[in-house]
Write a structure and sequence with these properties.
It holds the Pfam family XFP. The chain is an all-alpha fold and 56 residues long. Helix content is 41%, strand content 0%. The protein has one domain.
């Protein structure tokens, strides 16, 4: 139920992009995966693939 509500909030604020839940590793445990149907995931850290491709 909460996941669906947060999904709708993300859809309603897509143009403004002023709402984003944090703690993506906790979403499954808390049954909040529906939020990713509305906005996907945003990563701020470098991924292992990025680290390998930028090494000299």
């Amino acid at each position: 139920m909460l996941g669906g509500l947060l999904e709708q909030i993300m859809r309603d604020t897509t143009a403004r992009r002023d709402f984003r839940p944090v703690g993506p590793d906790e979403t499954a445990a808390n049954r909040l995966e529906a939020v990713f149907d509305a906005g996907g995931r945003a990563w701020q850290a470098r991924t292992p693939l990025q680290a390998r491709t930028t090494q000299s």
